[in-house]
Specification:
alpha+beta; 10 strands; single chain; five-stranded antiparallel β-sheet; Alpha-Beta Plaits; elongated; Beta-Lactamase; five-stranded mixed β-sheet
């Protein structure tokens, strides 16, 4: 037998619960309403006890909450209501804020029997903070992922992103039967530049060349990346060998026009580029490794040929 003291304790505990608790009888009338709900919807227990839930909250009619309550009574089914359709089904707001935004809620509905009668327990938890924390975590993870693909010195894509993008564009070109070209670029006599001006100036030179390269790529799908050291790469979807040659020449000419002073030991008095070009072909250069090797060979042919020039694979 439950004593009055036990009833008082149960009532006290119920009202200390950090969440909304509503119990409905078989007629869907409210028979229990804890104090957590009052400051969040402006209704005390005395105002709602004995009233049908869907008269107290008419906007719940036709909602997942009503469907869950009906299933609880008719089929003895407990339901955790997903937030995908409506993250804030009950018109509840932060305690004392009756004109603020609704809190986001996790709602569950559970049938139970007591002394031969069927009841339905509706539990409501405020998950606004959880949702916000999850969003911040996702944003942070996305920021970290984005930074992991950016070269810290030059601000363009790094080698990791280059590998991902080249694989993606190769598969796309092969699937659609399209063209794809790759440029590998090297700053001529960069060791001499570093030795003469110092590494800080060398870093500045790398950044200037990287931004010059990126500025020549106009299409969203084009990728400018730092390949390693003083080498840069450009991935050019839907671009054949001749189009790639023309773009490579415009990049080479643009960097030369910047008139960045070079070291006295360099071949030219200003910073120049050597560029190797390779394009995929049916039956040849169909994978990333082969395409990179072909562009690399063309690049070294450009350097052996006197630097400050473009060489296209197939013309070696």
């Amino acid at each position: 037998m439950i004593t009055s003291n036990q009833e008082a304790i149960a009532s006290r505990v119920l009202n200390l619960v950090n969440g909304g608790v509503i119990v409905l009888d078989a007629d869907q009338h409210i028979v229990l309403w804890n104090s957590w709900l009052t400051p969040r919807c402006g209704r005390a227990a005395a105002r709602v006890m004995g009233h049908p839930l869907f008269e107290v909250f008419p906007e719940l009619r036709g909602s997942r909450v009503e469907a869950a309550v009906l299933a609880a009574f008719a089929e003895d089914i407990a339901t955790a209501i997903p937030q995908t359709d409506n993250p804030s089904p009950f018109p509840l707001r932060a305690a004392g804020s009756f004109d603020g935004p609704r809190i986001e809620q996790a709602v569950s509905v559970s049938p139970f029997r007591e002394e031969g009668e069927t009841f339905c327990l509706v539990e409501i938890r405020d998950v606004s903070g959880t949702v916000e924390r999850e969003k911040r975590l996702l944003d942070h993870a996305e920021s970290l992922r984005a930074r992991s693909y950016v070269d810290g010195l030059t601000g363009i894509a790094n080698r990791r992103y280059f590998d991902v993008a080249l694989d993606r564009e190769l598969r796309r070109a092969q699937r659609l039967g399209g063209s794809l070209s790759l440029l590998l670029t090297d700053i001529d006599s960069f060791k001499a530049y570093n030795d003469h001006f110092g590494h800080q100036a060398g870093d500045s030179c790398l950044s200037s060349v990287a931004q010059a390269l990126a500025s020549r790529l106009k299409r969203p799908a084009d990728v400018a990346a730092r390949y390693g050291g003083e080498e840069f790469a450009a991935i050019l979807p839907d671009t054949d060998a001749e189009q790639a040659r023309q773009l490579a020449e415009s990049i080479r000419e643009y960097v030369a026009s910047l008139n960045l002073p070079h070291a006295p030991a360099a071949l030219r008095p200003y910073v120049t580029l050597s560029i190797g070009v390779a394009s995929i072909e049916k039956g040849r250069l169909e994978d990333a490794r082969a395409l990179i090797e072909a562009a690399d060979k063309a690049l070294y042919a450009a350097k052996r040929g006197g630097r400050d020039r473009v060489v296209v694979d197939g013309e070696l």
